[in-house]
Amino acid sequence: MGAVLLLSYVAGADRRAAAGMQTTPVLVATSAIPKGTAVAKVRDMAVLKSLPRTAVAAGTLSSLASVSGQVTTTDIQPGEQVFASNFADRKTLLAPGQVTVPNGMQQISVMLESERVLGGHLSAGSTVGVFISLKDKTQTGYTHLTLQKVLVTAVQGTAPTASPTTDGSPTPSAQPAYTGNVMVTLALMAPDAEKVVYAAEYGTIWLSLEPSSAKEGGTRIVAPGNVYK
């Protein structure tokens, strides 16, 4: 009986040893991967290694296909295994009020009176039409909806003090209406950024709320000769 038990134990030990020697592929960081790194860049910062199964933690990745388009949510140090939980959509990393700026665009801020910014009712993430008005040498004015569906990345201004409720606490507001001057930051390609800066320096700017469903056709340069046509 003792011999049978011994043989069973030895056989089990052999199986455990064999299992421990079996390997599985896993991605391992070859350099420090900062938080917020895109998957496309992580591909050059990690390598696929074959490690003993006993050394591989649950949830590791052998490919980045399942997290394509995402970014790292934490720093990953060299030598660390790469987990699926290390990745998420970039939007999850943004603080409230922050907006992702599309690649290739720059940000321009302009200071406008609140009536030129929808009465101060504007928030980051909205898209706007940019009306530019200029005067020629004869002081004749011209206005044109120069840019359309421009992304607003930030809005700063002075919000009015909320009126108190019956119990004395301020009335909550989903979106404050900024008063006075409002600083609006826009995401623009370089040629369009030039137009906005020129208008801010030598003319005037007016913004309209222009959602994706707004029609863009029918615009023209409006001047005294055609304003009533």
TrEMBL record:
Domain of life: Bacteria
InterPro entries: Pilus_assmbl_Flp-typ_CpaB, RcpC_dom, SAF
Pfam families in UniProt: RcpC, SAF
SAF domain mapped to chain residues: 24-88
Protein name: Pilus assembly protein CpaB
